[in-house]
User: Fold these one by one.
Assistant:
Number 1:
Amino acid sequence: MHYPEPISKLMESFMKLPGIGPKTAARLAFFVLGMKEDTVLDFAKALVDAKRNLSFCSVCGHITDVDPCQICQDTSRDRSMICVVQDPKDVIAMEKMRDYTGLYHVLQGAISPMDGIGPEDINVPSLLTRLQDEEVKELILATNPTIEGEATAMYISRLVRPSGIRTTRIAHGLPVGGDLEYADEVTLSKALEGRRELS
Amino acid sequence: MHYPEPISKLMESFMKLPGIGPKTAARLAFFVLGMKEDTVLDFAKALVDAKRNLSFCSVCGHITDVDPCQICQDTSRDRSMICVVQDPKDVIAMEKMRDYTGLYHVLQGAISPMDGIGPEDINVPSLLTRLQDEEVKELILATNPTIEGEATAMYISRLVRPSGIRTTRIAHGLPVGGDLEYADEVTLSKALEGRRELS
């Protein structure tokens, strides 16, 4: 006899989440016991609602509770630009910035031959369909600055080139607030390569 | 527009848990979206069940789904010994050891004048009632080796002394597998003080 069954079941559920081991699960489960019943019920409801009511936008692939998503529906946005990102969280990061008013396309991953992920396994075909249908003038490739992200950007760029749509890649360089001394050589080399005239 | 509402609500719920900030909450919430629906429903049910079906044992104060708890109900256990601990998790730790067959008493805290916690705020009165009613011969004080835990053990020991019940305190010393070199001086002093004849 270790934990009473309801608490060990709750611990098992917590342990299915990433980065939560037996000790953290026990701590969280005991914390839940000390929470108000309403708060726990809200938590349970939020879990079920998130799972049941969220899906991927049929246009851009972003996570949404309405289809098409609010961004795709927003008529005030610039429909001539599509920013291609790997993950719904990247859309959130871009939106927090408030500088971008175009549309998005969420790939839900990146091309990775090592993991057997090809262009058909991520949302590349739907991107090509969008480019045929819509009045798109610029495709901003904002995949991650990793090997997979770079390869994906390169692949899409070559695929789109014949259509005459302008394809751009977000800049690589030193992060704002960073320190030259601690920058890795690849970043530094990219920063030097991407240098611009001071006006 | 940042996150769709269902996911931001789920993130808020995760953020109410200890040690979970906005970034971890987002990671967990997105992970939940990728889980099977059944698993998510089980998680939600586990939360509600744990909150609704668990209470504290009316005898020993341990967390339980039946009252009195399974340990108090177990007739094979030695009813002449009560081990006093601060927390239900301490009972679990003791039970994992499998060496102790007596009963428990969970204080749900320790005396701490700094935090305004006196003997009446923790399960000391119910312990005294148990000592009058039952055939208890030994009280093992297994509160934590902290200032509050020591003070609580000392307090209970003085309170119980007139009744003639044997009160013992678990040993302090070097943890097994520990290193003398890295032991703090208080632990080392306790270890020296508690030295025993080798037989």
Note: The mean pLDDT of chain B is 89.
Number 2:
Amino acid sequence: MSFTHFDDKGAAHMVDVSAKEVTARVAVARGAVTMAPETLAMIVDGRAKKGDVLAVARLAGIMASKKTHDLIPLCHPLALSKVAVELSVAQGRVEIEATVKTTGQTGVEMEALTAVSVAALTVYDMVKAVDKGMQITDIRLVLKDGGKSGRYEAE
Amino acid sequence: MSFTHFDDKGAAHMVDVSAKEVTARVAVARGAVTMAPETLAMIVDGRAKKGDVLAVARLAGIMASKKTHDLIPLCHPLALSKVAVELSVAQGRVEIEATVKTTGQTGVEMEALTAVSVAALTVYDMVKAVDKGMQITDIRLVLKDGGKSGRYEAE
Amino acid sequence: MSFTHFDDKGAAHMVDVSAKEVTARVAVARGAVTMAPETLAMIVDGRAKKGDVLAVARLAGIMASKKTHDLIPLCHPLALSKVAVELSVAQGRVEIEATVKTTGQTGVEMEALTAVSVAALTVYDMVKAVDKGMQITDIRLVLKDGGKSGRYEAE
Amino acid sequence: MSFTHFDDKGAAHMVDVSAKEVTARVAVARGAVTMAPETLAMIVDGRAKKGDVLAVARLAGIMASKKTHDLIPLCHPLALSKVAVELSVAQGRVEIEATVKTTGQTGVEMEALTAVSVAALTVYDMVKAVDKGMQITDIRLVLKDGGKSGRYEAE
Amino acid sequence: MSFTHFDDKGAAHMVDVSAKEVTARVAVARGAVTMAPETLAMIVDGRAKKGDVLAVARLAGIMASKKTHDLIPLCHPLALSKVAVELSVAQGRVEIEATVKTTGQTGVEMEALTAVSVAALTVYDMVKAVDKGMQITDIRLVLKDGGKSGRYEAE
Amino acid sequence: MSFTHFDDKGAAHMVDVSAKEVTARVAVARGAVTMAPETLAMIVDGRAKKGDVLAVARLAGIMASKKTHDLIPLCHPLALSKVAVELSVAQGRVEIEATVKTTGQTGVEMEALTAVSVAALTVYDMVKAVDKGMQITDIRLVLKDGGKSGRYEAE
């Protein structure tokens, strides 16, 4: 078995998907940012009143998903038909979930994972002045559907 | 106490750093990608022979650090003077470390964290056909120096 | 009634267009840059001889329309099939009109409006050393066709 | 008199600023989006409850100011030290004001004007499903300071 | 006869391809970097041991092909379905070949030529400290197929 | 001797220039596009009347020089203080020359070479419908000054 992103001489390439079917595809990814309880409280507090960290991070995640092919060297450019990013405070941390859809020849896992990652980085950026010990963690694919390889569900 | 990225009406803004001193700054961030042992073995194997996943991810991380201000809404654009990204196989996972330097009015934590995140996403992308259960995890700042707030060391 | 770019919790998202039909779509937008008569005379003069402000602005508008999804947070990326930007001196000001076409699941109003806006900004940039009192004004949609909502014509 | 953005043969070029002094510079630009009173009421209403159009537009304006040199062909790339965009409902329309600072060899008028323009386009995008007759208007420079040409104040 | 990228008034525009058929298209471009024999020997040597110039250039070429429409003013944005870039040492120089595929309404010659050009520039960048006399040369289209104008083969 | 863009383990990195002096730097690069005499005649003809290929290519070259660090993986981002691109018809081909200046810690050779390359690609794009046998050739550095390594002049 070998990685699809290398040819038989070991050179990286963008895989030929031109013979793959155009189908409806969806991917959902999740991740989290852990932080001190007081930091989390500030986020919750700001949300209610003024300074909504999670709203800024949501937009950053959506915008980043559109740049995925510009960030990940061997990703195909794709016309995304839906991007949603949800951030919530749960289990003592900021939880992030991104859902991406396309109708195309290849999947959108990387777009969902990129949205989660950049939303998490944005939370970090906005809060770093009060808490440098935050961690971005547990970024993973939880659902993928459409395309030849079928449905994948992790949780 | 409140977040610096919001003004007193709660509106997000890019903080005014024009009165801050121009100083030499450095930041180091770390993170990891966890995966099945067989997947990790394929990466190690490919590295020795052909298809170097880690070399591709290293470049993606370096290039992404230059796009940080384009990804994180309230980050200042900065002229980076050094970016290095190291990937290694250790403790049963791929470990990533990024070091970024600038001479400027604001720090480079986000540039280092972005380099780690995109290097991790690139590892994921190249390996996802054989292992969908990978996780990107433990992304954190380990060192920051230069600027008024002084040295921060996490590990 | 509510805005389509927010979900029912008020979170911004990129609308799901995956169920919409792929149809031929067109949009036309217009706008203008007002300025002192002597400034306008310089543009006309330069055009005839050397230093064609309007030709530079036209290209800037065309190139910007391709970046629309990168500028407007909730815009879908689209494969544009035609972009034309016309600039002319009329009614004592620079008049700008952009026409954009696509075959896709969503309209191209924002691409046409972005082309007009950036062409106007480019006129401003090239002329600002001689006239700081210019104004960019009257940017609006004049035609939209294709898609479920049918034809819209403003003028 | 002639435009600085063309050489003596009429060829467009990015002006040589290497001999100009590095000074603190600021620019303020303003503009507006006009719309039907009911549309404006929806924006005000959404702001209070859910779906904050103006917060999304503010972020889009800030992010766009960092892309100015990528949009306007002959603009110099600049390290911005502050960007703030304010949106408010006044005089029956959405009013936008952007303030940009840098310490550099050239001014930031275009960055402020670009922030206003893209914030206005984003308002348009989010509201266009309910009101196609909106207009983006009165985009102009209101303040510029720093640099050899001195202070300019329009209002 | 006239150039298709200008309208009948001589204004540049992005050609309307909306009436063209969606077909499978491919393009192959080639080019080379000439340099001193000792420089070439260093590349070959580094490749075997450490510091693979050609692997870095290959990735840069692939990534650049995805930016073609952002670089070439009148190029249409396209969803590329395959990009491969091969670099080899032959005839006393570095030879580069790029192959690009799409299924769309317009060809991918520019994407293949851009991949070759940026791969060549990257070779230059990595080696320039030891050899400033390098030249990038012989960049040309060698194959184009798909679309109305039929097959073109140069070599 | 070894390449500066690799560390001692052979990993690519962006070289640390933080200890280098900030000095005024300039670079000049040249290149050409060869084509059939009739194609060249069309360019000359269009220039005089309508459809100025060289003016479009000039702008594309200027804009591309600002993207150099985004295209070449290990290039440092730089604040360019001047970019000029000249295109002329000479010796039976289109000749291109780019001049770039900065005040910074590293040189601008790559910015000048990128401007020439993208200007050449743009000429190719605009003319390719009438001549597929064009070649982009002889791209090289002709002058570099400023910085520790001193003046380099090739021609």
Note: The first strand of chain D starts at residue 23 and ends at 34.
